[in-house]
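Table S5 (text form). Sequence records supplied for joint modeling of the two-component complex.
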Amino acid sequence: QVQLVESGGGVVQPGESLRLSCVTSGFTFSSYGIHWVRQAPGKGLEWVAVIWYDGSNKVYADPVKGRFTISRDNSKNTLNLQMNSLRTEDTAVYYCAREANRGLDLWGQGTLVTVSS
Amino acid sequence: DIQMTQSPSSLSASVGDRVTITCRASQGIRNDLGWYQQKPGKAPKRLIYDTSTLQSGVPTRFSGSGSGTEFTLTISSLQPEDFATYYCLQHNSYPWAFGQGTKVEIK
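The corresponding structure-token record, covering 224 residues in total, follows.
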């Protein structure tokens, strides 16, 4: 079954860190770029970051640049998002999504990150 | 950075209506645009990529058009399962950017 499954969300205080994971199955993970997209409660979709299929390049949205790090382990079909110095405005559901045919064709179910004091 | 302006932000329509949603890019993005549908509590689902190519399994009542800076998603005959929020996404250059979304509600 082709799928992406996120995990690692939770409640943290401002300034703390959290690491999200996205485990994939059913496709050749090492052939695809993978993205993170987030959605604050009641708000629209926001693109966060991308990592190339081989990990050779990474791009971040300005709001997370310098605080978030995207990485992947192709031997484990896993994508990670290390989130440091979290802020209340980082509160959102975080989705991982596969890039294919120029766009995001396959999405996980999302994991909720809440940053609150 | 490219900004995407989507309109309207919401609309009310009846089953069987023709619905049109527009996205405007702040600069030319060729045909590098997709459309996504999201239902409450669910992950987005891609409907269209490269402006007008229908994702496999998506009903043909959905269509996309445009190029450059102006793009349109059309639902030719709205069905009950189409009530949802729709987003455009430009993938021409990084950072990728979504439109603000259009919530399609039942009239």
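Note: The longest strand of chain A covers residues 18-25.
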